[in-house]
Structures are given as structure tokens and as C-alpha cells.
Amino acid sequence: MQNRKVVIVGGGTAGWMTASYLRTAFGAGVDITLIESDKVNTVGVGEATFSDIRHFFQFLGLEEQDWMPACNATYKLAVRFENWRRPGHHFYHPFEQMRSVNGFPLADWWLQNGPTDRFDRDCFVMAALCDEERNPRHLDGRLIGQSFSEDADEFAGLTMSEHQGKTQFPYAYHFEAALLAKFLTKFAVDRGVKHLVGNVDDVVLNQQGDIDHVLTAEHGALHGDLFIDCTGFRGLLVNKALEEPFISFSDVLPNDSAVALQVPQDMEKRGIRPCTTATAQDAGWIWTIPLYGRIGTGYVYARDYIEPEQAERVLREFVGPAAAEVEANHIRMRIGRTRNPWTRNCVAIGLSSGFVEPLESTGIFFIHHAIEQLVKYFPGPGWQPTMRTMFNDAIRHVMEGVREFLALHYLAAARDDTRYWQDTKTRKLPDGLAERLERWQVQLPDSENVFPYYHGLPPYSYMCILLGMGGIDLKPSSALALADDALALKEFQYVRDRGSELVEALPTQYDYFTHMRLGAR
Fold first, then answer.
1. Residue partners of 108: CB distance under 8 A and separation at least 6
2. Helix, strand, coil shares of the chain as percentages rounded to 5?
3. Which residue of 48, 340, 460, 497 shows the fewest CB atoms closer than 10 Å?
4. How far apart (Å, rounded) are the C-alpha atoms in residues 78 and 277?
5. What is the SS3 assignment for 288?
6. 76 annotated active-site
7. Active-site position among 5, 39, 76, 166
8. So what's the pLDDT on residue 183?
């Protein structure tokens, strides 16, 4: 059989993750060419991830020491939300399943009779590690205790959707997206991916309306069986050439802009907090992502409430003197999704497919998920168009599920001191969220009453946001008034004791990654 010819237009993280994964999945069975321009800047906000991204690196056969030092990468145990309830308040959304006692989540018992006002410290061990800035591995590489073996192959080969709920890995990653793209460029090219640098001047369709080839000044016509659009918000192939419409989410998620800084820091002195921080501001929020050698930070905002110049001033004041000489990157974000990211013989992956604001670090997750689905439905012999429909359904469900989850953050936040935050309480909600919210006020989220399709966020994630944001009245299950809470109190004590034990035993992130770099030499 003749090899399938795949042309990937656009590089960056999306392009090179796709090229590396497809090459690993199909080997020489697929001929892959990636063309990228040296004149297009990458957005560079997708530096934090879901914990499932480890499966991407495992699939490529990469160990952490192979790629993390090259990408200034660090571990992420949680998202830390600051000032969403009130100034000075924070809570964590960690990578840790909610414990259960007598069939009820520990969060229910906390609402009934929690030992402190910190649900995250009472219910999750990870909160203590984040507060004390501890690493999830010992210096010798051993992972903190968990309910599964890291080396077991029980879940090997499963996609993220098939894996969810079976276990929860305790951390994700922070990394420099540009450095990861550079690392994967070498990885893919060494394994046979053809890399071209040039600009696509035209996209030529055949009589059936499929893409026949893309035309470049530097390399002429590039023909393929399947074209992958990794051209970012431009959507050069899928939106412009094939005229597939884009569906905006701006009625639900109004943040449409960001200003970003890459700030060099003495991380030994500063410390590397093992979480992404999202700090609420008057017209949006600021992300802080700690890397080995710098922080990545940015203000995500809505232009209806603040001008770009003012947003930049706020961000620089937030960072302090270290940001004085750092160039700012202003970004207009296209929030929403392409109606059918797989249109004819073109598949959009990354920002060309869709994007929501990076509040829960979903950008890299969307790329990884789309690649897995593309491999699952890849057009081999006997391929049927209904497989394209199934791919599009999977992407739509993920995008719409994440949209609903992010909308919940703003609705549930107790903060209401500016027009921006006041408007979050009256803004349109995604279909179904209002009804689900009524149920959550009498029964905390579970697998039966959250968004019904896979979108990467398990029920305990919804519990964390509802409990942490503080703007929605929640009640424990009425049945708990009849139950003995002795076992729950014992579980709360175990969480506290285990957290204290790990804080004493574990190194800091700076010490761990310095040790890793010395070992990699």
C-alpha cells in the first residue's frame, strides 16, 4: 500500500507535537512533511498542562530527564486561585482524587463538620505540599506514595478519555513552549519527518473542494492526502481556504486579550512554587508559571473593561522591578471553536481548532487530545467519513465541556467589587449549567451530574471550584445528619498527618531540578 502523505502547515508546539506523535504511531507508514514560517511568532501562553500529558511523553519513549532540562520544565501539583473569593484568600485545585468515607466524598463530610475553613488542606494532601513548596519526588527520583505503580503497564496505550477515573497522577508540568517545540523538532526530524522553512502563499483546492496542495515560494507545491492546520488563530487552511465557520464563546467567556511577560528570576532565591497561580484582578486574572530560571506571567482580560496599555501597567506593577526591561507580548485571543475541525481532508489542531482562556491550562491538553483522536480515526484502508464525524464530535464535546467548567469559575467566585466581577453573575450560561448548578447546591458534583461527555475534568474538579470560590451556597448531603462522622474525622487527621510527613521528607523543586540537571550531564 502506498504511504499516506501528511502535510502539517505550521510548527510551534501544536505542529511538532503532532509530527512527533504521528511518526511514533505509524512509523514509515505515513510520510510527514512539516512546513513552518520563520516570520510567525508563537502565542506562547500554553506553558502549563494537565497531568495526562505524561502519556504523550511516554508514548514517544521519553523519560523526564530526557526533555525536562532542555525545556526549563518544572512540576505542577495544582492550580492555585488567589483573591477570587476575597483579597488574601487562596485555595488549590490539585491533581488528587477526592477521598470517600462511607460512600460520601470527603468534601461532603467537610461541609457537615470540617475541622478548619480550608477545604483543600483538610481534603487533599497536595495542598500542604503546595503551601510549603515541596517537590512530588524525592531526590533519588522516587515518587510520593500513591495507589498505583508508576512502572505498571495496566493503563499503557489508553487514550486520555479511556484512562480518566482509573487513577490520578499527582502532577503535571510547566515548560517553555518554544523550547519544547525546538526539542520535538529534533526528535521528529531524527525519525524521518521532513522539515521545511517557508511561507504558504496559497491553498489550492481540487474540483471536489478538498485541498490539493499548498503553494510556497521557497519549496513550490506541497501535495498531500491529509493536511493538518497548525497555523494558530489564523486558521489558514480550515477557516480561510475551506471557509469552515468559527463559533465564538464570547457570550459566555468575554476575556479576549492577554499581555504576557517572560521574566528572568533567581529561582534559587525566589523558590519554585509547584503550581500554576491564577490571581484575580479588577478586569480578569494574572497567571504565574514558575520555570527553572524564569517565570512566565500574563494578564488575561476583556477589552470591554480595560485597555491593553492599562493591562500592561497592572501586570508590570504586579511583577515588580524584575519586569522593568522585559518586552511585553500583547495577544488578541480568538475564544471559541471551529465548527468542524476535521473538514474535508484537513484537520485543525491547536489554536486553529479552538481555544478558551488558559485558566485551567487546557491549551496543551486540547492539542494532545486532538492528536490522540486523529490517530484513532486516521484514514487508513477502509476508512469511512463517519470517522471524521466521530472525531469532530469528540473535539466539540471537549471544547464545550471546558467552556462550561470555566464559566462556573466566574459564576461561583464571591468577588463582586468591580463591574467586571458583577457582570460575571448575570452573564449567559452554557446550556445545561444552570440546571446542573441547582443539583450541585443540594448534592455535590459526581459522575452522574457533571457535563456528560469526556472533557478532561473529573467531578472532584467541580467540587474544588464550588468549595473554593465561595459565591454559591452549598449544603452537605442531608443523609450525613444521620451518620457517624468518626471515620471522616479520622480521614481528615490522616490527610493532615500525611501532608506534614511529606513536607518534612521532600526536597524543594529548585533542589530537585538542579540535581536532575547535574545527573543529566
1. 444, 476, 477, 480
2. 40, 20, 40
3. 497
4. 9
5. strand
6. yes
7. 76
8. 98
